Amino acid sequence: MTTLRYLQGYPEPLLAQVQSLIDEGRLLQTVTARHPEMHAVRSERALYDYVCEMKARHLRSAPPLAKVAFDPKLHVLKNALGTHSAVSRVQGGQLKAKREIRIATLFKEAPADFLRMIVVHELAHLKEREHDKAFYALCEHMEPQYHQLEFDLRLWLTARELPATLPASPDNEDSNGCV
Ligand SMILES: [Zn+2]
């Protein structure tokens, strides 16, 4: 039994289906077949433009973003896929908040749907702090498939951490330098 740490809280029958895909060695291919499209957001500049474009489309009235960045430490050290923060400081007698969104670097290699989902999630936090009903309603407003995408993202995260299944081979003779 694999520990499905990304899928805690989902109903048992669903988890049983996931487990059988894992047992059959088909989880990653099942997820990537559902989300075949990749994105071209490789740099911090491209990410900033991507996020601002989505914000302009859905959340025009939300406060502007000072910074958007890929963060290689988020997922590994903080166990987070994205973060949002507002650094407040007084500027010209006014209290200003510099808002910042960070996205785990692993999304550079993720299907386009999953990057969109995490960006929707962090943008929604510009308006709703908690993970409550209003928050998820806003996510669904920006991305009607939000809940399905979040589930599939969790499947993808699960799949990429499974031990690689190597095809059984009768000997190792061909394993050196044959690339
Ligand atoms: Zn959140």
From TrEMBL:
Residues 93-153 form the YgjP-like metallopeptidase domain. InterPro entries: UTP_pyrophosphatase-like, YgjP-like_metallopeptidase. It comes from the Bacteria. Coiled coil: none annotated. PANTHER family: UNCHARACTERIZED PROTEIN YGJP (PTHR30399), UTP PYROPHOSPHATASE (PTHR30399:SF1). This is M48 family metallopeptidase. It comes from Piscinibacter aquaticus. The lineage of its organism: Bacteria, Pseudomonadati, Pseudomonadota, Betaproteobacteria, Burkholderiales.
